[in-house]
Design goal:
287 residues
């Protein structure tokens, strides 16, 4: 029986991932939350990784605006701690699947970013995550898997879809930016994809390197908000388009966060489904 370790099991994606893994019955799963495993502690990481075949890291600093003011602290979690995990995997022969982000790209493209496209983060969060990616690539050239995701929403934890549903009950109209384009991704669907990738890794079918774990298709935050309202039977015209300069935030956001999904086929896997069909299925679980 293969043994898997999940770091960051208390987060939105981590909780879904553990649920999918434990529904299988043919895997031994150890799930660790931040309170149970401090990934910034190299000694604790080495002890936790020992005896596992695959480590899936969903832990991380996720406060994008907070990272702008505390880049060193964000990099300690998103960068140096990832190096601790990768080093521990290298020492024991474990494979590592690490979650990263579209924010490693500048966001100025006009077509989907390929897995090997040049990185150039526009904010501290993206820079901190890129440090983690580089650590995995350096320390685990033959056993490291980086899965970039974006625009994540789901049942557990705060997210855009849940916010839209909450605000629908509080406001008559909502102004939502229409000049940022990306791929809304259901955390449960991504969790299933990560488990499929783990299976391919254990079977020797998946080459190491970068994969893009986002839904197919693309839309804007405005388009996503309208879809949420329509699927819930609400008046989508209550959503009004606006521009990012109306909502100035400490960290700049990429204007274009659409990722290509070319590498899944070589591992015998399909990319994630279209964002709208996934949202239709997911809405019953998001509150």
């Amino acid at each position: 029986m293969s043994r898997l370790l999940v770091a960051g099991a208390g987060g939105m994606l981590g909780r879904d991932l553990v649920a999918v893994l434990r529904s299988r019955g043919d895997l031994s799963v150890r799930a660790t939350t931040r309170a149970e495993l401090d990934i910034t502690d190299p000694q604790a990481v080495r002890a936790a990784v020992a005896g596992h075949d695959v480590v899936i890291n969903t832990a991380g600093w996720t406060d994008v605006d907070g990272a702008e003011a505390q880049e060193e602290a964000a990099t300690a979690v998103n960068g140096h701690a990832v190096a601790h995990l990768a080093a521990a995997c290298a020492a024991t022969g474990a494979r590592m699947i690490h979650l990263s982000t579209d924010y490693v790209f500048p966001g100025d493209a006009t077509e989907p970013y390929a897995e090997d496209a040049a990185t150039s983060p526009v904010n501290a969060y993206g820079r901190s995550k890129l440090v983690g990616e580089l650590a995995v690539s350096r320390l685990l050239p033959d056993a490291g898997y980086i899965v970039r995701t974006a625009w994540l929403y789901g049942e557990h934890g705060p997210n855009f879809v849940a916010t839209m549903l909450r605000l629908a009950e509080q406001r008559e109209h909502l102004d939502v930016v229409d000049d940022q384009r990306g791929q809304p991704t259901w955390s449960y669907a991504l969790a299933e994809q990560l488990v499929a990738l783990a299976d391919a890794v254990l079977a020797g079918r998946a080459a190491p390197g970068v994969y893009h774990g986002t839904a197919s298709g693309q839309t804007t935050w405005y388009g996503l908000a309208r879809a949420v309202f329509t699927l819930r039977g609400l008046d989508a015209d209550r959503i009004r388009p606006t521009t990012s300069d109306r909502y100035l935030r400490p960290a700049p956001r990429p204007a274009y966060s659409v990722l290509a999904h070319n590498r899944w086929a070589a591992a015998g896997l399909r990319p994630l489904a279209d964002w709208h069909s996934a949202l239709t299925q997911a809405l019953d679980t998001v509150h």
